[in-house]
Each structure stands twice: as structure tokens, then as C-alpha cells.
Amino acid sequence: MLTLYSQQDSGNCYKPRLLLAHLGRPFRLIDVDANSGVTRSDDFLSLNPIGKVPVLEFPDGRRLAESGAILLHLAEGTAFLPGDAYARAKAYEWMFFEQYSHEPTIAVRRSLLIYPERADEATPERLAALFESGTRALEVMEKRLRDADWLAGEAFSVADIALYAYTHCAGEGGFDLGAYPGIGAWLDRIDALSGHVTMDWRPPE
Fold this sequence. Notes:
Layout: E1 2-6, H1 11-23, E2 27-31, H2 42-47, E3 55-57, E4 63-65, H3 67-75, H4 85-114, H5 124-145, H6 158-167, H7 181-191
Helix pairs in contact: 1-3, 1-6, 4-5, 4-6, 5-7
């Protein structure tokens, strides 16, 4: 059975949990509190030298880190990775956008506001800069989703999972999602999908 080392309230860790739920693949969940410093311990660094979650461990002992890499591996050969070459490249494009322009702004602003141990980093200047860049990222998504149901191709894919994880909780970072009707409709579509699970979902033991 697959084992996922994961922090429950992390969007990056939610991404593989959400895809695994949609795929109906059983997995074992091991909770890791990255905020406690445990990911910098020798034991955890032996799992992932980068010292971050998520980490997916295979039954044969191999391990895979980075949420995007895990998504792409799990989606290989499934309907969640577009078969058309161009649509697949667009899925990659959105996933790179998420890691370069979306997650470093929207997820970081949320983190600064919800984790007390990061309060000292939440200066007014930094919060303002993150809000500005996060708003730009949401506007890019809104432009696509005003005219399309999904981010890449004609169906729900890993691109949507990658962007859903931190967009659906962007309000916790101070972003008003009510200002983006295209994004709002997209979030509703994902929430209504068969197999969808919320961030607090855990696999049955």
C-alpha cells in the first residue's frame, strides 16, 4: 500500500490526498507537523532530504516528494492527465503557474495569518506585497475560468487539483473570492464532483 507523509492543513499535502480519493486508491496516512521542526530531523531527512511534506512512499520503499511530481505520477495513464499532447502541456503550464505565481503568494499569505508561530513574519509591507501578487494570480485564473469549465482541456484534471488546493481556502489569506465569479463557479463544480473530499478528510484505517 502507498504511504503518504502529510500535514492535514497543508494545501500541498491536500493535493495528493484529493487525487488519491478521486482515483479510489487506498493509502496509509502518516501525520507530520512540519511547523514543529520534525521535518528537519535526521529521521525525516532520510525520507526526504529537502525536509518537506508531502512525501509518497511506495510499497518497495521508493519515495517521491514535491506535490506536483506526486500528482503527475499518480495521474499517469488516468483520465486526470489529458491524453491530447497540447492539453497535457497546458496542464503542466497551470501546474508550473501554481508553484511559481500562485502558491508563493496565496498560500504564503494564508500561512502567515493562520499559524501563530509565523506572526513575526507578517509585516504590513509583506502582507501588502503578497496580496498584490496573489490578486494578480487570481485574475489570471479568473480570465480562463470565465469562459471555460476547467483549466486545461475539456475535463477535470491534475491542473484543477493543483490550483484548487490553495484557491478554495484563499479567504483564510484575506482574499475575497466573491470578486471572482468564474473561480467561484469552478470551485462549486469541483465540490460537486463524485469522489471529492474536503481538506479535513482522512482515508479509512
